[in-house]
């Protein structure tokens, strides 16, 4: 699973180096393979504003994130107090996991081949969810799309944000990388097509 000591690479990482790097190098006319965009990390984040009233939600979120990601989740805390939300600085309001290396590639593979196809009425990912620097964020409405989660033990459906951080310099490069990896991004619709 993990790199080093002669162990094998995850299959998506092997495909990236064998097929995707040469294709992207040719598509964008890079002079070296080091310019080709690659995945840097994947961040799974559950924001739980209701945890102010229900502290048990944090424990549930941390358990679910650890099960999905295969590594320890950290609890995120409020940075400042907001009276309107009855929130004080330092109160736990979420959980997150940052995946890198082999775990990141394996999670990406599971996300594309198992989790996304389990989303009800799935019609592809929004192609406009890039941040301008080639990074992509998608929202998932419930953690049940991951097969690692036992449906019978779920006490509460929790959504999460999945951020794919790349080394791409702009959205066009990030889009090309994710499409090459197999992300089911919808085709962009021009203003004229949308009006008709």
What key phrases describe this protein's structure?
alpha+beta; globular; 17% strand; single chain; 5-stranded antiparallel sheet; 196 residues
Can you tell me about this structure?
The chain has 196 residues and is of the alpha+beta class. Helix content is 32%, strand content 17%. It is built from 5 helices and 5 strands. It has a 5-stranded antiparallel β-sheet with strand order 2-3-1-5-4. Helix 1 (11-28) crosses helix 4 (171-181). The radius of gyration is 19 Å and the shape is globular. The N and C termini lie far apart (49 Å). 26% of the residues are buried.
Shape: globular
Report the portion of residues in β strands: 15-25%
C-alpha termini separation: 49 Å
**Strand order, largest beta sheet:** 2-3-1-5-4
The main β sheet shows up as: 5 strands, antiparallel
Mean pLDDT: 81
Helix content: 25-40%
Which residues form runs of ≥5 with pLDDT under 50? Answer: none
Total helical segments: 5
State the order of secondary-structure elements, H for helix, E for strand. Answer: HEHEEHEEHH
Quick overview:
With 196 residues, the chain is α+β, with helices and mostly antiparallel strands. It contains five helices and five strands; from the N terminus they run αβαββαββαα.
